[in-house]
Amino acid sequence: MQQQIPADGALVELVRYEPFDPSGAGTWGAPRYAAYVLFPSGEIRTVDLGDAAAMDAQVFTFLDALRDPRSNIQPIARALDAQLMQPIRALTDDATHLLISPDGALNLIPFAALMDEENRYLSETLTLTYLTSGRDLLRMNRGLEPGQGPVIVANPDYGATELAAASRGATPSQGNAVLTAQRSTDFSSLNAFGSLPGTETEADAIMPLLPNVTRWDGPEATESAIKQVQAPSILHLATHGFFLQDQDCLAVSGGTRTASIDVVSTAESDCVPTPRNMENPLLRSGLVFAGVNQRASFADDDDDGVLTAQEVTRMNLFGTQLVVLSACETGLGNVVNGDGVYGLRRAFVLAGAESQLMSLWKVDDFGTSDLMQGYYERLMDGAGR
Q: Full-prediction pTM beyond 0.85?
């Protein structure tokens, strides 16, 4: 890992831990955050960042503000930076490229949007690379070539926009999905998905910019087609994304603010997470494709229009340089301390993708189309991913 750190960089491993007092009977203290900073020279520096509960509260205040266009984000971004990144910058000397491996709720932060003590966004002075673990550095320089040209998937034909909720065991509530006894492995509670015409415009705009491109849209934009790709240089998926929050047995607090599909719990008491009652978090997030609104009639769950994060891990993306998820809240997932975010972001890393572009909040269909066109124009002009 040390050999993969750039000369102007440093690896920042953030950890959420419980301090242990070995004296007497031995007791565990309240969770805290700390950072380990590894330099190309091999030197390691550390800093304790304080109480995890206080940090998490600041994180969710920051995320709530980012999602509200009326918010004055700068003082909130500055407050979180003072608590989190300013103590780390005191250790990194002249490093201008920070390779950040977050833990716990810190996985949900766009660090570039934090503001330093001189009221500059971190993106103005630092290059930031996100890792699910420092071990990801060992994946990045394998010299693998893409197996095919770019693949674009846009505006899938989801089918009819109404589902017979009663026949699927779901109970509608204010237009949102409801999960009662069902678990997210069933997906019967997902609402019908509406078309995304802006993604068709998006695909039309970026196709001429990419060489040897393959495009699937409408009824051809199927789950099975996606699963069969062989390490495309770029995989661009413009569709709906979802994250089902398992509120009953979530390891850390987060509430529905991290869900693009609401889940209503009917449990009368809090559930203590254990290996037995925690569902595989890779089954709670995913993307939807052609025919998903008719999934009730599908005999084959492997091609029901729902591509879960777990199914993504079985794809062949070793050699894929970039995955773009042009969908809502695709960067989210269940937060598992010590293991990063077990959602789509981690799934695409495990599948072999070198880098990803994802959203942390709900996005406008046509606004995203304009953003993506500008992004690819700069990418083709030689700008870094």
A: no
Candidates 352, 348, 356; CA nearest to 318 is: 352
Calculate the alpha carbon distances from 8 to 94, 99, 361 in Å.
Answer: 7, 11, 31
Does the residue 283 lie in any domain? yes
Q: Which residues pair with 36 in a beta bridge?
A: 13, 46
Could you tell me which residues come within 8 angstroms of residue 202 by beta carbon, excluding any fewer than 6 positions away? 154, 238, 326, 368, 369, 372, 373
Report the Cα 169 to chain-centroid distance in Å: 29
Do 194 and 338 fall into the same domain?
yes
Residues 88 and 197 in one domain: no
Indicate the DSSP class of residue 109.
-
Domain-ending residue, one of 139, 164, 198: 139
Judge whether 113 and 121 are in contact, CB under 8 Å.
Answer: yes
User: Does residue 362 have a pLDDT over 80?
Assistant: no
Which of 113, 139, 165 terminates a domain? The answer is 139
Report the Cα–Cα distance between both ends of the chain, in Å, rounded: 22
| Strands of 188-264, DSSP E | 214-218, 234-238, 241-243
Contact 197, 158 (CB under 8 A): no
CA distance 79 to 279: 35
Domain extent, residue 44, equals: 2-139
Helix (H, G, I), strand (E, B) or coil at 33: strand
pLDDT single digits (tens) 304-327? 888 888 899 999 999 999 999 876
- Reported as a single tens digit per residue, the pLDDT across 2-29 is 999 999 999 999 999 999 988 877 788 8
